Amino acid sequence: MTKAFLFDIDGVLIKPMQFATVLERDFGLTAEITDSFFTGPFERCLLGQADLREELPPFLEKWRWPLSLDAFVDRWFSIDSILNAEMLAFSASMRYMGIPCYLASTQEKHRAAYLESTLEFDRLFDGCFFSCRLGCKKPELEFFQQVTSQLDIDPTEIQFFDDRRENVEAARLVGWEADQYFWGVTPYVELGE
User: Fold this and answer.
1) Environment class of residue 191 by beta-carbon count within 10 Å: exposed (0-12), middle (13-18) or buried (19+)?
2) Quick check: 177 and 155 in contact, CB under 8 A?
3) Topology annotation, domain 4-15+83-180
């Protein structure tokens, strides 16, 4: 029987990342150009080991970003905030039935705070498990083990939705019921007795 639902954010509750498209279209910043940041210092930000606002400025200068750091971050966070109304309605209905719903996501601390306060995910969900606070990220088994430990319920009673196959497979390795989510498809779940 499901005692908790956990949701990935980007690709499940929020439309898959759009900011990269905007960067290329409007500013000529291709993935090849920005890759050194997102596969480098940003990885430490995701683990809570570095601060996005301290790591990003040298790259913005190198990329000849014409606006401020705040303008970059604000655009990024607002553009990548297209909500999935169907999945939010699904989680709200599960909460209404008394089944708690949580977030389980790889995020750095500034976007995590944005998601909680500006998008009000702290009100819409019963808790947030973010990589920047756990010190590990999906699909590392430690991420799922820490979440299981903090929830203090049997892992087989956790239902998890993520758009990435590797995260679903890792969740299953620790005993979670996990399904790959495909954008625009509301899941069917059997809640048991």
Assistant:
1) exposed
2) no
3) Rossmann fold (3.40.50)
pTM of the model: 0.93
pLDDT per residue of the chain (193 residues) written in tens, 0 to 9: 899 999 999 999 998 878 999 999 999 999 999 999 999 999 999 999 999 999 999 999 999 999 999 999 999 999 999 999 999 999 999 999 999 999 999 999 999 999 999 999 999 999 999 999 999 999 999 999 999 999 999 999 999 999 999 999 999 999 999 999 987 666 666 665 5
Domain locations along the chain: 4-15+83-180, 19-79
Number of residues that this document lists for the chain: 193
